[in-house]
């Protein structure tokens, strides 16, 4: 049961090899084996989206994918979003617009939005709301998340140079 | 420069945004993992427990028989009608609800622990489960607990003197038979704990996703039978609580016991199924209410028979009285109720324990009072807003028939502002037009009070054995001029640290960035009660203000000596002690440095350390919600088109945070009103154990709110702020459901239950269509 399988993958731009139990989910692999605990588990059955990461650029529920299935893939997690201390425009917009309260769902929403905006930078407001309805948040009532993603989309289209963070 | 009143981005956020928050599961490194074997049945006698054969090194399993010296969780309510029942850490002899923990497995990984737990065979002689009010209260019903032969754990009764006479004088008596189905708070992070034993000191540190760390420590030490000082409880970043994480749960008792027994570190992270099955439920209530009105639409008397299904146990520390007694005590809400007869029972059943959930009883009682106003208006031919005008409390302080004292509020003004903002006549025109097109729009109003920030007097009145309420704060400025504020309260997503930093910044004249608020660690904070009941901004805020004022006084005294002026001439502002009208100014860090390193100059105790304590009587926030919906009569689906909130929470310390609390609360209220329902089948199996079955709303179901503020200042809050954590959830269901009822008025459909799911709405329409030939024939 615990015979491990060796895989190679890229995580947040760093190439690495990992030895993973076949039954380990990608989420558990990221959290427990790679110590990337920014990816959260809210349900482990594919509904809440707290575990959303990007696999080859696409938002994926990492609780529904085995770690070994990421062999050869490029995985991006919330830890890879900021450029050092410079927040990603999505993070900056979530901060300025109070798009988070407890913060538990936040990494999933950030990665979901990042993937969706990379695929289509010109989403309409309805499309943004529709995409964001894939994930659950129990704290915010969503309106500030929707607003933050809308504003971040504009910033991202206008080009780089996110503001420096305060912390 | 003042910081109060500014929508300062939260100091908590950068780390959370970067994925550097540390929730309980992020503390499990190096721990053995724990999984519970749980009862598959709702009720029965345990005949035996067969443990799996375990290879050496393959883990361990423990049952109640192993827990020597461990007591039961038995919260106290000093009322003659209260029946105390004890909750064992692991079931002993019998099981009383499905999902009750019976055995615990410990292994190297979570998966191995789960494998082990699955192999535990619990041999149970089943009993017919008692799941509902009817079953529990039936003649000769089996007692769920021998301590409560009638299946009633707590009961409130009251009848005012003039009640009978008032009812006799009524022009009309309106009857309501309303139901709120069982619901869950569903924090996105489930429960969990990591307990580690320190070989050097013999102490245990429990990191757990909880709202009341100090209380948990007291309760755990008592039940496990250890000195409280040998236990440290830490609430790290907590992924939402909403009341569900207040209680002392058996799982935490087991974790602390295991850490001591095995002298190691053990971790249990609940899965979502366990969270639905065995954490805590709420809202399972049935209200039968009669309102006696005069011909002018004045409420003369209220007659209430209230039942709350409190499940199998009484939650510690607030007890199973929390829902039934709050329902009983606060039913009148924002209305003048001259005479009252009330009976409220907390009924025990073979279901998961009831515990507080955001709003506690008030979503249901607001739904009740607001349906009452609507139905009375209809019966008397009055406008539904007008009848509220005639009944809302307008003079303060107001004393309700149950003895609740209301401080200054703006019930009537908030409603008028909301009604004006919405433009009701324009809506009625839209509604009439839509009906001609076969579309059904509705408008719903909800006016309510939110009792917040109450201290020991209120809890003592409830007879609670453990009387919560006050808060203490310790404040210190270090030699570099930074401030540390240690609070007994324990925020988990509310942004309290930022709001308190704003308060301190204004008192001491430093920027909020220099104020670090420390919470959620029993080793690092003064004893306090945590975060619940919309209390932290008012009570921890008040205590913080007192501590900060004392620190400011000391800084001024030092500054006065250093600048050789009178103390009264010094002000603290923007990082300096200044003497207005002169060019004298000293940087605050210089004062801090001097306080520590030149203390001999001032004749004062060295350093800057102060404390604050606050134990207020409580203050009421109030609001009016108005909701516009469209009901699809083919599917029963409800779309919310507009949602307006006029909120009066006194002075807003950080308006952005306040609006966030309202928006999040309303979203939960919408879910409670329309979608969320925990369902047991007849055998007591919980059918809703995933987020695909139990449906919190998504971004598609929750509209953007229009939020307006009013500001009534109450002497009951030293910061002039009122609590605002629960209001959204209290008021929204009534607004939504009144709107649905309004939309369906042409069909004569009555909305008497929450949630009003599409299935239930569709069924109600069809039943009315069959019964009432005048309704459209083809529905
Ligand atoms: S944890 Fe993966 S969807 Fe909920
Ligand atoms: S911020 Fe708490 S769940 Fe979204």
Automatic annotation (TrEMBL), chain A:
<keyword id="KW-0001">2Fe-2S</keyword>
<dbReference type="InterPro" id="IPR036010">
    <property type="entry name" value="2Fe-2S_ferredoxin-like_sf"/>
</dbReference>
<feature type="domain" description="2Fe-2S ferredoxin-type">
    <location>
        <begin position="5"/>
        <end position="81"/>
    </location>
</feature>
<keyword id="KW-0411">Iron-sulfur</keyword>
<dbReference type="InterPro" id="IPR051452">
    <property type="entry name" value="Diverse_Oxidoreductases"/>
</dbReference>
<keyword id="KW-0560">Oxidoreductase</keyword>
<keyword id="KW-0479">Metal-binding</keyword>
<dbReference type="InterPro" id="IPR001041">
    <property type="entry name" value="2Fe-2S_ferredoxin-type"/>
</dbReference>
<dbReference type="GO" id="GO:0034875">
    <property type="term" value="F:caffeine oxidase activity"/>
</dbReference>
<dbReference type="InterPro" id="IPR012675">
    <property type="entry name" value="Beta-grasp_dom_sf"/>
</dbReference>
<dbReference type="GO" id="GO:0051537">
    <property type="term" value="F:2 iron, 2 sulfur cluster binding"/>
</dbReference>
<dbReference type="Pfam" id="PF01799">
    <property type="entry name" value="Fer2_2"/>
</dbReference>
<keyword id="KW-0408">Iron</keyword>
<dbReference type="InterPro" id="IPR036884">
    <property type="entry name" value="2Fe-2S-bd_dom_sf"/>
</dbReference>
<dbReference type="Pfam" id="PF00111">
    <property type="entry name" value="Fer2"/>
</dbReference>
<dbReference type="InterPro" id="IPR002888">
    <property type="entry name" value="2Fe-2S-bd"/>
</dbReference>
<dbReference type="InterPro" id="IPR006058">
    <property type="entry name" value="2Fe2S_fd_BS"/>
</dbReference>
<dbReference type="GO" id="GO:0046872">
    <property type="term" value="F:metal ion binding"/>
</dbReference>
<protein>
    <submittedName>
        <fullName>Caffeine dehydrogenase subunit gamma</fullName>
        <ecNumber>1.17.5.2</ecNumber>
    </submittedName>
</protein>
Automatic annotation (TrEMBL), chain B:
<dbReference type="InterPro" id="IPR036856">
    <property type="entry name" value="Ald_Oxase/Xan_DH_a/b_sf"/>
</dbReference>
<feature type="domain" description="Aldehyde oxidase/xanthine dehydrogenase a/b hammerhead">
    <location>
        <begin position="18"/>
        <end position="128"/>
    </location>
</feature>
<dbReference type="InterPro" id="IPR046867">
    <property type="entry name" value="AldOxase/xan_DH_MoCoBD2"/>
</dbReference>
<keyword id="KW-0560">Oxidoreductase</keyword>
<dbReference type="GO" id="GO:0005506">
    <property type="term" value="F:iron ion binding"/>
</dbReference>
<dbReference type="InterPro" id="IPR016208">
    <property type="entry name" value="Ald_Oxase/xanthine_DH-like"/>
</dbReference>
<dbReference type="InterPro" id="IPR037165">
    <property type="entry name" value="AldOxase/xan_DH_Mopterin-bd_sf"/>
</dbReference>
<keyword id="KW-0500">Molybdenum</keyword>
<protein>
    <submittedName>
        <fullName>Caffeine dehydrogenase subunit alpha</fullName>
        <ecNumber>1.17.5.2</ecNumber>
    </submittedName>
</protein>
<dbReference type="Pfam" id="PF20256">
    <property type="entry name" value="MoCoBD_2"/>
</dbReference>
<dbReference type="Pfam" id="PF02738">
    <property type="entry name" value="MoCoBD_1"/>
</dbReference>
<dbReference type="InterPro" id="IPR008274">
    <property type="entry name" value="AldOxase/xan_DH_MoCoBD1"/>
</dbReference>
<dbReference type="Pfam" id="PF01315">
    <property type="entry name" value="Ald_Xan_dh_C"/>
</dbReference>
<dbReference type="GO" id="GO:0034875">
    <property type="term" value="F:caffeine oxidase activity"/>
</dbReference>
<dbReference type="InterPro" id="IPR000674">
    <property type="entry name" value="Ald_Oxase/Xan_DH_a/b"/>
</dbReference>
């Amino acid at each position: 049961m615990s015979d491990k399988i060796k895989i190679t993958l890229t995580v947040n731009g760093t190439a690495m090899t990992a030895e993973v139990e076949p039954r380990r989910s990608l989420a558990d692999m990221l959290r427990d084996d790679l110590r990337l605990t920014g990816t959260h588990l809210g349900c482990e059955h594919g509904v809440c989206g707290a575990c959303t990461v990007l696999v080859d650029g696409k938002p994926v529920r990492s609780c529904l994918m085995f770690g070994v299935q990421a062999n050869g893939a490029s995985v991006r997690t919330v830890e890879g979003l900021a450029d050092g201390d410079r927040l990603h425009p999505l993070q900056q917009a979530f901060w300025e617009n109070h798009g988070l309260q407890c913060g538990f769902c936040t990494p999933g929403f950030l990665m979901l939005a990042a993937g969706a905006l990379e695929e289509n930078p010109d989403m309409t407001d309805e499309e943004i709301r529709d995409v964001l309805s894939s994930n659950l948040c129990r704290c915010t009532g969503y309106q500030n998340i929707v607003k933050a993603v809308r504003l971040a989309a504009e910033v991202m289209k206008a080009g780089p140079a996110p503001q420096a963070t305060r912390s | 420069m003042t910081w109060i009143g500014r929508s300062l981005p939260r100091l908590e956020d950068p780390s959370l945004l970067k994925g550097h928050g540390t929730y309980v599961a992020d503390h499990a490194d190096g721990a053995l993992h724990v999984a519970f074997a749980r009862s598959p049945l709702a009720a029965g006698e345990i005949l035996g427990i067969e443990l799996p054969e375990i290879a050496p090194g393959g883990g361990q399993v423990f049952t109640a028989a192993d827990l020597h010296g461990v007591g039961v969780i038995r919260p106290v309510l000093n009322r003659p009608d209260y029946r105390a029942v004890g909750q064992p850490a692991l079931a002993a002899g019998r099981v009383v609800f499905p999902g009750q923990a019976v055995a615990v497995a410990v292994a190297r990984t979570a998966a191995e622990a789960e494998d082990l737990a699955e192999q535990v065979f619990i041999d149970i002689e089943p009993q017919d489960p008692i799941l509902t009010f009817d079953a529990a209260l039936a003649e000769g019903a089996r007692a769920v607990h021998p301590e409560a032969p009638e299946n009633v754990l707590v009961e409130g009764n009251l009848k005012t003197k003039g009640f009978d006479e008032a009812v006799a004088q009524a022009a009309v008596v309106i009857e309501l038979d309303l139901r709120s189905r069982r619901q869950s708070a569903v924090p996105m992070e489930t429960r969990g704990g990591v307990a580690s034993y320190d070989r050097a000191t013999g102490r245990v540190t429990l990191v757990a996703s909880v709202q009341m760390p100090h209380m948990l420590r007291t309760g755990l030490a008592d039940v496990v039978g250890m000195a409280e000082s040998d236990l440290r409880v830490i609430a790290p970043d907590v992924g939402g609580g909403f009341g569900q994480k207040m209680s002392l749960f058996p799982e935490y008792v087991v974790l602390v016991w295991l850490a001591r027994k095995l002298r190691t570190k053990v971790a249990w992270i609940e899965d979502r199924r366990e969270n639905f099955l065995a954490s805590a439920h709420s809202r399972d209530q049935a209200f039968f209410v009669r309102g006696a009105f005069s011909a002018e639409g004045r409420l003369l008397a209220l007659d209430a028979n209230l039942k709350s299904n409190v499940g199998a146990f009484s939650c510690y520390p607030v007890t199973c009285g929390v829902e039934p007694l709050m329902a009983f005590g606060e039913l009148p809400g924002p209305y003048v109720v001259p005479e009252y007869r009330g009976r409220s029972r907390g009924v025990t059943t073979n279901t998961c324990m009831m515990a507080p959930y955001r709003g506690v009883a008030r979503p249901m009682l607001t739904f009740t009072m607001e349906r009452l106003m609507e139905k009375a208006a209809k019966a008397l031919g009055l406008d539904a807003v007008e009848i509220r005008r005639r009944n809302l409390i307008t003079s303060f302080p107001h004393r309700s028939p149950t003895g609740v004292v209301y401080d200054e509020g703006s019930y009537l003004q908030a409603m008028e502002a909301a009604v004006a903002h919405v433009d009701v006549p324009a809506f009625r025109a839209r509604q009439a037009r839509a009906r001609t097109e076969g579309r059904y729009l509705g408008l719903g109003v909800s006016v309510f009070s939110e009792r917040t920030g109450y201290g020991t007097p209120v809890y003592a009145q409830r007879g609670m054995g453990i009387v919560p309420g006050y808060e203490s704060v310790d404040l210190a400025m270090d030699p570099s001029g930074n401030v540390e504020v240690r609070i007994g309260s324990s925020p988990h997503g509310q942004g309290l640290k930022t709001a308190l930093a704003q308060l301190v910044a204004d008192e001491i004249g430093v920027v909020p960035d220099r104020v670090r608020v420390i919470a959620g660690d029993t080793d690092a904070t003064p004893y306090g009660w945590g975060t619940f009941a919309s209390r932290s901004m008012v009570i921890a805020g008040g205590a913080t203000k007192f501590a900060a004022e004392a620190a400011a006084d000391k800084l001024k005294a030092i500054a006065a000596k250093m600048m050789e002026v009178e103390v009264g001439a010094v002000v603290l502002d923007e990082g300096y002690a200044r003497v207005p009208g002169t060019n004298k100014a000293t940087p605050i860090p210089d004062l801090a440095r001097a306080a520590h390193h030149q203390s001999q100059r001032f004749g004062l105790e060295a350093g800057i350390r102060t404390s604050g304590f606050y134990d207020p009587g409580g203050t009421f926030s109030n609001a009016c919600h108005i909701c516009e919906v469209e009901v699809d009569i083919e599917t029963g689906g409800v779309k919310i088109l507009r949602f307006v909130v006029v909120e009066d929470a006194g002075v807003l310390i950080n308006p952005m945070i306040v609006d966030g609390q309202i928006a999040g609360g309303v979203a939960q209220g919408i879910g409670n009103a329309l979608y969320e329902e925990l369902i047991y089948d007849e055998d007591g199996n919980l059918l809703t154990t995933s987020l695909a079955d139990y449906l919190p709303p998504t971004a598609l179901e929750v509209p953007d709110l229009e939020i307006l503020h009013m500001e009534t200042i109450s002497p009951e809050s030293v910061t002039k702020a009122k609590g605002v954590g629960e209001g959204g959830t209290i008021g929204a269901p009534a607004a939504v459901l009144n709107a649905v009822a309004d939309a369906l008025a042409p069909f004569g459909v009555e909305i008497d239950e929450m949630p009003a799911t599409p299935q239930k709405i569709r069924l109600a329409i069809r039943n009315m269509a069959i019964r009432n030939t005048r309704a459209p024939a083809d529905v």
